[in-house]
From TrEMBL:
Obligatory cofactor(s): Zn(2+)
Lineage of producing organism: Bacteria, Pseudomonadati, Pseudomonadota, Alphaproteobacteria, Rhodobacterales
Catalytic activity, as annotated: Release of an N-terminal amino acid, Xaa-|-Yaa- from a peptide, amide or arylamide. Xaa is preferably Ala, but may be most amino acids including Pro (slow action). When a terminal hydrophobic residue is followed by a prolyl residue, the two may be released as an intact Xaa-Pro dipeptide
Domain Peptidase M1 alanyl aminopeptidase C-terminal: 530-844
Annotated Peptidase M1 membrane alanine aminopeptidase domain residues: 219-432
Gene, per the UniProt record: pepN
Domain Peptidase M1 alanyl aminopeptidase Ig-like fold: 437-528
EC number per UniProt: 3.4.11.2
Protein name according to UniProt: Aminopeptidase N
Gene Ontology terms: biological process: proteolysis
Transmembrane intervals: none
Length: 846
């Protein structure tokens, strides 16, 4: 439990630590409830610092003794750490603390998971391991000795020596404490080898629990692919003799880039065709790449303070998206990323949790591992690359690595390398880091003589952290199409810097059709009454072609919700042509059939001054799905048949695209045939993609319960597969049944609520079921609040993260607002609420 009156920390208050750390030696004597950690740390006064207070962070530690230069000292201890009088010359600090890994359910610091020891130190978990200046700008080399009976004892860096019951590791690369890791347990190594571009031989291992050995091959390959890619594309070579990945069942996030010892949520690394879907494979490949890429963007160059989090996360997300685009299909990746950005980041920007990519204050930094910092942070890098061009981007990034290797940096450092290497003034561009909110870009057109003119007006809605947004630099990739669909002008990038700005294109013999914001070149809301039907048929930019289908579908859905209009026939006709077009990638055609999320429709209704009715939205989407089934009816079975994969399963883009289109057809077929084809697919499926898709379609049909029972019987011993079983039932529940379904699942003997994956699978799925969560009787709100209150003392981080389900509450009607408000009050008034959850609820209630 933390302080009652939490402090707000401000970017503007940054000061360096009064001491530098020369080296760190740690000894762990492992015992589940009483691990001893002995530290020996060489400090020296920091000449660059004015504040010379010797404060070491430390939480939930029992100090047994402390010494300075061998003399026992008696530090002053508080709940946050200790202070002590120290000499103003270099000195050696030693201490021994006792900690309780088995009692650590928060999964931060050193904890136990499925019988092993593991750590999670980012952002501020190291202070639960020993007393230390736990801040990213304090970097040091670490030498770690682990004593314990476990057969596998791992830490960062290179192995130095080991014997029965002990192992020693040394990490030669100075690092902040948040990159420290330790793992110990009965683990099996899936080994691999890699030779770097300069001939360094690297030993690779993926460590898993016995029984998971068959789920390692894909992750190992993804790691090798990532290592090759970072050499080829960014010139970055690996820098240790060994690279280890460990799969852990209980983990708050996806994974963690600890130096040389990445720790992964098992769901983000373990994969096999029988247990993982195509989507799982793609996500795993991306996360392995992401964590590996952090070795340079995060570890070799880290952050000065946590306000700079986007420096490593935005850049690394951008890098992993480039990797996925290269490994798979660039347009499909771009479309998927934009769907995700709109679903999560735009939502954040539209509500009380809006914050800049680089926040200026926080209470609990763990609450800022957000879509804004990560995904919008990556969009900002993408815009920078678009503005300066690919070659200049590469040069600037090379300069960044040259200039800042080994340092803890800021966004200013990052921008400076671009200014220095390109000569551009990026002062205005920097607003992308300091202003919250999604810019709206209104487009008007005119055509006079043979000159075609586009006028852009930008406006960013004000938010709590950015009450007065200024114009931003918006790169708009666009092209012009002629009436016959040919390109009248290929893609150009317009740079919008002012509130209102016009661009003219002379020499147009006929009025062209513009295709604006190609590739989604900036994270903005485009307000343009474009000829979407024409663009859906003809646009040469695959993103905008998809976007046109989206816009038509959305317009149609909004008209159904507001005026009860029937689905738009122009949309259905255009869609039919694209879906039938065998020259297009099946994955892309599958994306075309997708509809905007119900929460996105609610957001748009709210933005346009209406009060969204979740039930009406649900019905409109259902009617649209029915209309799709009817419009596509002649091709459903032929396309389903044509996209069955007969070769051995491979999770690559080609095969998964076929399955995606086949299953998109099956979804619509099931609306017609009552589940016969889905049942056949379920019965014959030899991989999880096909099995799970069929199961999802069967839920709600007559065969649903039997299929769920069969699935459970088959997979009851596989946690990751059972997470799918828990989640899918909630996702596929009828709106009125969603809360009851979730409630019943929380009573299932296998509902281990302390496991974040299982908790999220069940209650996270409820929060994402728009009409179910917002059921009029408030049952969804009450159930989620019950569980958040229960989880908070056990795991504040996961609780706080899931509070964001309530962030959209002001969109809804007065009755729903009252119901949600009551739950927010109830959570807020829970005695001993964590700092994490208190901050989130406080911001949401504002
Ligand atoms: N740096 C990790 C990643 O992006 C995320 C760790 C976040 N952990 C946390 N407790 N907030 O890969
Ligand atoms: Zn990351």
């Amino acid at each position: 439990m933390r302080d009652a009156a939490p402090q707000t920390i401000y970017l503007k208050d940054y000061t360096p630590f009064g001491f530098t750390v020369e080296e760190v030696h740690l000894t762990f004597d492992l015992a589940p409830s009483a691990t001893r950690v002995t530290s020996r740390i060489k400090f020296a006064p920091n000449p660059d610092a004015t504040d010379k207070t010797f404060f070491l962070h430390g939480e939930e530690l029992t100090l047994r003794w402390a010494k300075i230069d061998g003399e026992t000292v008696e530090p002053t201890i508080t709940a946050e750490g200790l202070t002590c009088n120290v000499p103003n010359i270099p000195f050696v600090w030693e201490s021994e603390v006792q900690i309780d890994p088995a009692g650590n359910t928060a999964l931060e610091g050193l904890y136990r998971s499925s019988g092993m020891y593991c750590t999670q130190c980012e952002a501020e978990g190291f202070r639960k391991i020993t007393y230390y200046p736990d801040r990213p700008d304090v970097m040091s080399t670490f030498t770690v000795r682990i004593n314990g009976p476990e057969p596998v004892l791992l830490s960062n860096g290179n192995p130095v020596a080991s014997g029965k019951g002990w192992a020693e590791w040394h990490d030669p690369w100075p690092k902040p404490a948040y990159l420290f890791a330790l793992v110990a347990g009965e683990l099996i190594a899936h080994p691999g080898k890699f030779t770097t571009m300069n001939g360094r031989k690297v030993e690779l291992n993926l460590y898993v629990r016995p029984g998971d050995e068959h789920k390692c091959a894909f992750g190992m390959q993804a790691l090798k692919d990532s290592m090759v890619w970072d050499e080829k594309v960014y010139g970055r070579e690996y820098d240790l003799d060994i690279f280890n990945i460990v799969a852990v069942d209980d983990f708050n996030m996806g994974a963690m880039e600890n130096k040389g010892l990445n720790v992964f949520n098992s769901s983000a690394v373990l994969a096999s065709p029988e247990t993982s879907t195509d989507q799982n494979f793609e996500r795993i490949e991306a996360i392995i790449a992401h964590e590996y890429f952090h070795n340079w963007t995060g570890n070799r160059i880290t952050c000065r303070d946590w306000f700079q989090l986007c420096l490593k996360e935005g850049l690394t997300v951008y890098r992993d998206s480039q990797f996925t685009s290269d490994m798979r299909s660039a347009p499909v990746k771009r479309i998927s990323d934009v769907i995700d950005l709109r679903g999560r980041q735009f939502t954040e920007d539209q509500g009380p949790l809006a914050h800049p990519v680089r926040p200026e204050s926080f209470q609990e930094i763990n609450n800022f591992y957000t879509a804004t910092v990560y995904e919008k942070g990556a969009e900002v890098i993408g815009m920078l690359r678009t503005l300066v061009g690919a070659d200049a981007y590469s040069k600037a990034v090379d300069l960044y690595f040259d200039r800042h290797d080994g340092q803890a940096c800021t966004i200013e450092d990052w921008i400076q390398v671009f200014e220095d290497s390109t000569g551009r003034d990026l002062g205005q561009f920097k607003r992308w880091y300091s202003q919250a909110g999604t810019p709206h870009l209104k487009v008007t057109e005119s055509y006079e003589g043979d000159t075609y003119t586009l006028t852009f007006a930008q406006h960013t809605p004000p938010s709590a952290t950015t009450p007065d947004p200024k114009p931003q630099v918006i790169p708009v990739a666009m092209g012009l199409l002629a009436a016959d669909g040919s390109e009248a002008m290929g893609t150009q990038v317009l740079e919008i810097t002012k509130d209102t700005q016009s661009f003219s294109f002379p020499g147009q013999p006929a009025r062209p059709v513009p295709s604006i914001l190609r590739g989604f070149s900036a994270p903005v809301v485009l307000d343009h009454s474009a000829d979407h039907a024409f663009l859906l048929a003809h646009d040469t930019d695959p993103f905008n072609r998809w976007e046109s289908a989206r816009a038509l579908a959305k317009g149609s859905l909004m008209a159904t919700i507001r005026q009860g209009k029937a689905p738009d026939s122009a949309y259905l006709e255009g869609l039919t042509k694209v879906v039938a077009d065998d020259s297009l990638d099946p994955a892309y055609r599958a994306l075309m059939i997708g509809l905007p999320a119900q929460s996105e429709l609610a957001a748009s209704l709210h933005a346009e001054g209406d009060v969204p009715d979740p039930d009406a939205i649900h019905l409109a989407v259902d009617a649209m799905r029915e209309a799709q089934a009817e419009a596509l009816q002649d091709m459903l079975h032929p396309l389903y048949d044509a996209h069955q994969v007969t070769q051995d399963y491979v999770p690559d883009a080609a095969q998964s695209g076929k399955r995606a289109l086949g299953n998109a057809m099956l979804a619509l077929i099931t609306r017609r045939d009552g589940g016969a084809v889905a049942q056949a697919q379920y019965d014959t499926a030899t991989n999880m993609t096909q099995q799970l898709a069929a199961l999802g379609f069967l839920i709600g049909a007559e065969q649903g319960d039997a299929a769920l029972g069969a699935f459970e019987a088959q997979w009851k011993d596989d946690r990751l597969v059972m997470d799918k079983w828990f989640g899918l039932q909630v996702m596929k529940a009828k709106p009125d049944d969603a809360a009851d379904t979730a409630t019943a699942l929380t009573r299932h003997h296998d509902f281990n609520w302390k496991n974040p994956n299982r908790f999220r699978a069940t209650l996270g799925a409820l929060a994402m079921h728009h009409a179910g969560f917002h059921a009029k009787d408030g049952s969804g709100y009450a159930l989620l609040a019950d569980w958040l209150i229960k989880l908070d003392p056990v795991n504040p981080q996961t609780t706080a993260r899931m509070c964001s389900a309530f962030q959209t509450w002001r969109r809804y009607d007065a009755i729903r607002q009252t119901l949600i408000k009551a739950q927010l009050e109830r959570i807020a008034s829970t005695p001993g609420l964590s700092r994490d959850t208190a901050e989130m609820i406080g911001r949401i209630r504002e």
